[in-house]
Amino acid sequence: MTITSEEHILVINPGGFSAKAYEAFRELPFVASLTILPGVGYGGRSDPAEEITAEEWARTTVLVTGKTLPPSPEAAPNLKYVQLFSAGSNQLHNLPFYRATDNVTYATASGTHGPAISEWVILMMLTFFHNSHLYPKWQAEARWGDDSEFPRPVIDQFGRTLGVLGYGAIGRQTARVAKALGMKVIAHSFSSPPKKERVEVAVPNSGDPDGSIPEKWYTGVEGLDDFFCSGIDVLVVSAPFTPETAKIINRKTLAKLKGAYIINIARGGLIDTDDLIEAAESGLIAGAALDVTDPEPLPDGHKLWSVNNISISPHISGHCVGYENRVTNIAIHNIKQLRAGKPVTNLVDKAKGY
Q1: At a CB cut-off of 8 Å and minimum separation 6, what does 89 contact?
Q2: Cβ-proximal residues to 70 (8 Å cutoff; 6+ apart), any chain
Q3: Number of domains in the chain
Q4: Are 327 and 298 found together in one domain?
Q5: Does the reported pTM lie above 0.70?
Q6: pLDDT score recorded for residue 45
Q7: Range of 136's domain?
Q8: Helix, strand, coil tally for the chain in percent (to 5)
């Protein structure tokens, strides 16, 4: 699909993001108008749909959003491109507009999160294996602590195996950083062929552009058992959430990951929560770090809060200064591609669900 008319861009800006980033849209010669609705987005913040007039929806050709879409295809007849702030698109799948529009191009923010989330992964991994969560406690107590208080021996990660389940932008950047620590990286991808090129638009020169970092590849549903049984020390769950991957980490797969430390930065639904708690408390796995949970947000009193070898953060591993600039970079790149009749990056495949 080629876009030839002037662009009318509507940005529904998640709270906490600077609106200055979107001024880059005004520099494009084919942009006729830019509307920014501030202070809205995820985590219970107000839905701005009621603030958007019928006239605004009708003229919008490009929408930059977290999860708010037009009320109907008829309300936004000129909309051709939707840029998401998220790496996934599952939040849209049940929305009427998304289900009814095959003539709209949707793209994710994949690649935007890679550096921040990969650093969070390494942070949580090293915090766990170095017991460094005790250091602030000792300092607050003005006490010179001792490693006899460590709940587990310190284990450095040199030579250990990092398994990446889902080798997209986040998985690739995590592999890059882990390799710098001396880890062996293996990867599983549901795509075939798995070892494919991916050049990042949001953060140029990041990730693993030619897929050369993993020492071994596994692919498809048929490759999962071999992947889980390959001696993984640290598993990073970074696959899309689809019916195929729902609760893919369960009692059966956890038994194959004996002794592993599991890190989930994808979606909480990829892990069976009850099975994870059982595996962590029994010592079957070393522990886990979760930036996403099922349910989410995790309610008060949920058992996950009290499992001492599971760490939880409130779905913020990808938050960083400049995030909105990177999303804008993707949108500008893709708008230019569409206008030239060329393929876009991070295209959502509705059939696959991501």
Answers
A1: 106, 108, 348, 353, 354
A2: 57, 60, 63, 76, 79, 97
A3: 2
A4: no
A5: yes
A6: 46
A7: 114-312
A8: 35, 15, 50
CA distance 103 to 97: 11
Closest CA to 319 of 21, 111, 113: 113
CA dihedral 228, 179, 160, 135 (to 10 degrees): -110
Amino acid at 320: C
Closest CA to 347 of 279, 203, 333: 333
Calpha distance 50→322 (Å, rounded): 28
Greater pLDDT, 320 or 1? 320
Last residue of a domain, one of 293, 312, 331: 312
- Tell me the C-alpha to C-alpha distance, in Å, between residue 94 and each of 62, 78, 202: 21, 22, 27
- Tell the burial category of 196 from Cβ atoms under 10 Å away from its Cβ (0-12, 13-18, 19+): exposed
Tokens 């932008």 correspond to: 169
For the record, the structure tokens of 36 come out as 């920014």
Q: Are residues 136 and 12 in the same domain?
A: no
The verdict on residue 45 lying in a domain is yes
With beta carbons less than 8 A apart as the criterion, state whether 233 and 255 touch: no
Looking up tokens 């009708």, which residue turns up?
A: 58
For the stretch 139-160, pLDDT in tens is 999 999 999 999 999 999 999 9
Fill in the DSSP letter of residue 187: E
Higher pLDDT, 241 or 44: 241
Q: Do 247 and 329 belong together in one domain?
A: no
Q: What is the spatial distance between Cα 166 and Cα 214, in angstroms, rounded to a whole number?
A: 12
Output Rg (C-alpha) for the chain, integer angstroms.
22
Handedness of CA 37, 38, 41, 47 (dihedral sign): negative
